[in-house]
Design goal:
The chain has 145 residues and is mainly alpha-helical. It is built from one helix and three strands, in the order H-E-E-E. It is rod-shaped. The mean pLDDT is 85.
């Protein structure tokens, strides 16, 4: 058996564990920072989607004289409503060109309420439940930024 001199013996198990722990701590800090930014970007994207839906609803109101009611819902932006107040100037192509109402950044449907004169679009956040905190908090088109 060949004995190596002490200077060429390599790392001890304790030294390797310390290095692995340091790498894990740095990795967890970076990961939590990235995940926080990722969740914030989903909130920002959902707010942009609500503003875009608001612009489409405004166009609907210009053509029809009122917003779709709660009963008509956001589907009124895809196909001409058959119930409620009639829209004589409804765009035959609809108001959303890709023929589907967008969902929020977490894949949930937007909640829509309207009496025809004003509207509120709501997202339930990442938890999909009404209420919640932090990234699970509801977002509303009525919220001021």
């Amino acid at each position: 058996m060949v004995k190596l001199p002490q200077s060429q013996s390599g790392f001890t198990l304790v030294e390797m564990i310390v290095v692995i722990m340091i790498i894990a701590m740095v990795g967890s800090l970076v990961t939590s920072n990235i995940m926080g930014r990722f969740q914030k970007s989903k909130v920002d994207t959902t707010k942009i989607q609500m503003r875009n839906l608001g612009a489409v609803l405004d166009q609907f109101k210009l053509d029809c004289g009122s917003y779709p009611t709660t009963d008509q819902g956001l589907d009124a932006l895809l196909t001409k409503p058959t119930s409620g107040r009639e829209c004589k100037n409804y765009d035959p192509e609809g108001y959303i060109k890709d023929k589907r109402v967008p969902k929020d950044s977490w894949g949930f449907e937007f909640q829509y309420e309207s009496d025809g004169q004003k509207y509120v679009i709501t997202s339930t956040g990442d938890d999909g439940q009404i209420g919640g905190e932090k990234y699970g908090a509801d977002l509303s088109s009525d919220d001021k930024e």
